[in-house]
Amino acid sequence: MTTPRTTQELLARASTEVLANEAAEVEPLVPYTPLAELLALEPVDGELDYPERDGNLMAENTEQFAWIVLIKETLEILFRDHPDVFVAGDLLWYPIKGNNRLCFAPNAMVVFERPKGRRGAYQQWAEAGLPPQVVFEIRSLGNRAQELADKLQFYDLFGVEAYYLYDPDTDTLQGWLRDGASLRPLSILHEWVSPRLGIRFDEAETWATQAEARAAAKLAARAQAEARAAAEQRVTEELATRAALEAELARMREQLRQLGREEEL
User: Fold this and answer.
1) What is the rounded distance in angstroms from the CA atom of residue 56 to the CA atom of residue 32?
2) What is the pLDDT of residue 30?
3) What Cα–Cα distance (Å) separates residue 164 from each residue in 51, 70, 107, 200?
4) Domain ranges of the chain
5) 109-154, pLDDT tens digit by residue?
6) Does an H or E element contain 123, and which?
7) Is a pLDDT exceeding 80 seen at residue 69?
8) Residue 60 burial by CB count (10 A; 0-12/13-18/19+): exposed, middle or buried?
């Protein structure tokens, strides 16, 4: 399956520019450190800097970038009226205070019971100890098997309730749901309804189409509101013009009356 055509048309240029800018700005890719080594590090006392970037690109190609943006923005639309639901994309998540090397940046994540707002990184101890409950990853050819396995273990260890991994190259969607203390793989995602998100997972294309439809509905509502505001502005201007004309007519009538009186005198 390919990225929805309309979405691709809207995002292709932007994604190409963003990837080019990131490639020019970020440092070279850092060597990958296995999760086991990061978990073995002892937390340090005192103030530490928790970087907002890890030196890696958000996406490796325009298609992966388009899917990340599509999912993240759809989640934003889905919860736009919920001030206590935080949605982010490519935001570094630090689960343990004192360990500024143990982190991952989900392609998209949702945190319930946390306020919206800017964050340079998600520091879990500063967020009432709450981990992201739902995370999404878009697979690309550059993903190492070790990295994917480490991400699954990381999300499992630190309390993610649902993890979804989509591979656009093979059109496969995998999912894991927390069952007790561990994430368990979902055997069937067709017609699956996410307990947290309320989204029904049909075929990936259907889900993407629904996502795009929500975005289109938002744009349509905005266009309708702008059209209504423009119409109201036109009515206001027409009423103001009519009032000015009536005032001018009244002034001219008064002048004529005054001229008539002067002639009588």
Assistant:
1) 10
2) 64
3) 26, 15, 10, 13
4) 5-201, 210-265
5) 999 999 999 999 999 999 999 999 999 999 987 778 889 999 999 9
6) strand 122-123
7) yes
8) middle
For residue 152, give both structure tokens: 């699954």
User: CA-to-CA distance for 164 and 137, rounded, in angstroms?
Assistant: 6
| Residue with token string 């989640």 | 75
Q: pLDDT above 90 covers what percent of the chain?
A: 45
CATH architecture, domain defined by 5-201? Alpha-Beta Complex (3.90)
Q: For the chain, where are the alpha helices, taking DSSP H only?
A: 5-25, 35-39, 62-78, 145-157, 204-264
H or E element in which residue 175 lies: strand 172-179
CA distances from 120 to 20, 123, 253 (A): 22, 9, 68
Ramachandran angles phi, psi of 66, nearest 5°: -60, -40
Among 217, 213, 187, 191, which Cα is nearest to 202's? Answer: 191
